[in-house]
């Protein structure tokens, strides 16, 4: 391993499950990136380095960097991703590095970070039982340092890749964000507890009560995962970066240029599309779409 931090396998189902439990989900936008447009929209599919560099000259629009607070009636408070670190408001390079700061043009208003938003809800970082990561890219793992008391859950494939890949900053990872002696736990979608759910081929029931399922959705990154949350009357899928915008679920939509594995990305996207077609009332979050979060409620119940 190329980092000092270590991880241990997570044993599931976790304690705290409750038969018939439903959860609520609260979106929080922690800042924006103004990334090269080809990363979100690339008719030719996966973009190479030179195409991305050419795209840096084009006009850009800021897009939201979200994270999510899940309230489980018996398991407690769960955060999905961390969004951008509080330092982004004044010194983004200290957290993201100079290259990513140049490439993504981050912005964060004072008080927009996840810690400030949690405090506005009366929640301290120590109240967060666990943080579940869709993946460890720098816009999703930026504020890990602020949750030393939480159990941090990540796909084992994602952990191994993020910890060992060469030139991580050019692959979407900033190891300084997660190289801490925290309680990192990994899950495997090859275990005997994995089963299918609706259109998703591999899912893991986190608490054994059906309230939160982790779904394997690789492609954007090697070990990308999404979450299927059971609300009162429908499901909500936190898709991470499996889709950037809602329009990616429609037929004929172009692919993003930012993909680790185009084949797996298309397979994961197909599962999300089938879920959307089968359950049109379900919510599927869009990873980085301004309009989606502008119209999102304060809480999905």
CATH superfamily placement: Ribonuclease Z/Hydroxyacylglutathione hydrolase-like
Helix-strand pattern: EEHEEHHHEEHEEEEEEHEH
Shape call: globular
CATH topology tier name: Metallo-beta-lactamase, Chain A
The strand order across the widest sheet is: 1-7-6-5-4-3-2
Query: What characterizes the major β-sheet?
Result: 7 strands, mixed
The CATH class is Alpha Beta
Distance linking N and C termini: 41 Å
Give the overall average pLDDT. 96
Report the structural category.
alpha/beta
Low-confidence stretches: none
Folded structure, characterized:
- The chain is of the alpha/beta class and 301 residues long.
- 19% of the residues lie in helices and 23% in strands.
- The protein has a single domain (7-295), classed as Ribonuclease Z/Hydroxyacylglutathione hydrolase-like (Metallo-beta-lactamase, Chain A, 4-Layer Sandwich), CATH 3.60.15.
- The protein has helices spanning 49-55, 93-96, 98-104, 114-120, 156-164, 262-278, 290-295, and strands at residues 7-9, 24-33, 63-72, 76-80, 128-132, 151-155, 183-187, 195-197, 200-205, 212-216, 225-230, 235-238, 283-284.
- It has a seven-stranded mixed sheet with strand order 1-7-6-5-4-3-2.
- A hairpin with a 3-residue loop joins strand 3 and strand 4.
